[in-house]
Amino acid sequence: MNRYGPTRSSLNRLFLVGILIICSLCVIPVISRFATFGSKQIAFTGPLLPPQKPNPFITDKKKSLEALDQELFNDILPSVALYTNRGVNLQITSLTCKMCRSIASKIGEIMMLNVTQTIAIEEGILICTAFRIQPYRVCAEILPKFGPWIMTVLANSVFSADNLCGKAHLCPMPDHPEKPELIDLPPPIPSEPLESIINEPSQDDEKMWVVHLSDWHFDPEYSEGYEVNCGEPICCRPPNAFGDKAKTPAGKWGEYNCDIPRRVIESMLEFMPNVVPKIDYILSTGDLPPHDVWAETQSSIKEITNKTANIWRKFLTSAPYFPVIGNHESAPVNSFPTSSLVNVSSVSWLYDTLSSQWNIWLTHNERHSIEKRGFYSARLPDDNMRIIGLNTNFWYKFNWWMLMRPKSEWDPENMLNWLIKELDDAEKLGEKVWILGHMIAVNGDGFPSFNSYFSQIIARYKDTIVGQFFGHNHWDEFQVIYDYHNGDEPQPVGVGYMAPSVTSFRNVNPAFRVYEIQKKTKKIINHYTYYLDIEEANRNDKPEWKLLYDVKTLYKLRDLEPQSWHDLSEKFLTDDDAYQTFKKIASRNQILNKYGSCNAFESSQQCKNRIVCKLRSTFSGYGPFSSHELCKKHIWIPHLPEDWFLTATLGKKINVFVDMNKFEGEEYGDGDGNMNDEDYGDSLDSLFESQDDNDKSGNGGNGDNENNDEDKPNDDITIEGLPKILVRMALGLVLGGDDAICR
Ligand SMILES: [Zn+2]
Known about the structure:
Purple Acid Phosphatase, chain A, domain 2; 3 domains; six-stranded mixed beta sheet; 26 helices; 41% helix; disordered N terminus; disordered C terminus; binds zinc ion
């Protein structure tokens, strides 16, 4: 390990110098703009500066810039001088840890200042516009919405004293309880043999019909005649070109680059009773607002969810209706802090809003549960079942609040433990359960640990959970869930139905799903997907909803048990016609057929393998097939470890992307060529592994390392790692324009 070069003390000094540089880069522009130097008051007059708003995520008292400035001189500079004066012989003592903590906490405090955030937002707008990431209007609106959130999370996670100084080995890592690998599950109770699915056609009164609607994204601003290719994230709405000025004017019945107008939703809901005369339950798996995430505010969200609920009230009152919350329901999008962060941020405004807007469909208890944490369980004694509506935003990896929650909170809002309790109660009472959620935990959307936890729960209660309904991806997909903690061969134990979206955004035809359910077992025996070809509807000026397929006939399935879905995924590998059919219906025959598009680096077979791996819950690098020959070679995007934000910022991740060769092999991989959590491990920590430590660890290993070192400069990892961290951190500030540099 001594090829990592310089000893701990010199690396530590380098680290501290780096921190000081960054600190200075943060402080100097702030001071240079707002502080008084002599008699000269420097006023800020940036042309793109949005009106300065207080950070909404700070509720407690803040220090003034002057106070911070004073602390910097009082606390840090004397320590640095002392350190420098004593030179290389300085031992690693608690003083160094204290100094690091002091610097780190100053960085955090500076990041939380309104002035710092205002500058960062302004520089962000410059970069966003200059590099044409988005048009100016979008850049100027989106950055003030996300900037304070991101900086608050960074200041309290990546740049927290615990993290920075612990990772630098200057302070001991805080003693957080480890999150469990296996979760506590009550032992299975002996039960009667499983009732097998009856394949013979059941009588009508032995069936139930359930409608599944997902990802509505209703856009009240959709306007016929406005530009379809407007250059913003979604189009077909003012203020973009209209009439003669529009090169591609939006059609009356929707466009593939836009969210959905009211008339399409209404035509769908009017059509529905024609094909489902008797609906038993209606399920909605979230995402109600349009994709204009740059413009959304709490009040615009309340307005759109209210408008959507009014449409529901008009059409969806003939059967019990169960909606859940998607990631788009919040403003900013994806922002779902847990109640442990209540001093920083809260999403109770949304829970209260939805609870009151959904009052005609949910009971008092269910609404109360939504108001508390955004999830609920509905007992349906007449059918001897319960429907559990989860708030899956707590496992969504773009809900950045999750990076900031206390480490002990491995189960945010206790939702998984609550789910286990609900399932256990249901099992004891002989009830069946359907699970609803916006996004499933077992693909790349969830943090990896939730992939494992959710699979464990599904495996334990596989006889009780007979339906799982999700959305989010807008494609028409399914996801097989396996029991991979029990025995050698992973067994398929569940299937998540990812319903097609109501919206046509992006490159899909609007659709809805109807499930045929066996009343006795509450199991799904077939499903039917209906769609509207919007291109045809625009051409004929007439919406014609049609049956796209019924799944049992289409794939000649024996039944809709998890094993059959696993077998179907197996069939895709050898039967290309079946796979092409699946690909085509994923977008509901949309002409571009974008689902499962291959990238430039893979053959069509590799591309197919990648999609099949995804259907088998292995996309995040976890799951029973992640080390399987089929999957391991072709998942070229490594999954993001739980603290991906931290690792990306601290350099480990970027090194892997920049120079895979350096990190492949036995020291950084487990030999399967597939980077996983452990592989990313602690490469930064390795930077600080000292010669002294290696000396203590024994001679054998050292001997080998010394031989290796003959061929290599002994600081190669240092050059790869540490300066890059500093350069990247500094670059963000320097690239922001000359305003960010001292002058
Ligand atoms: Zn969506």
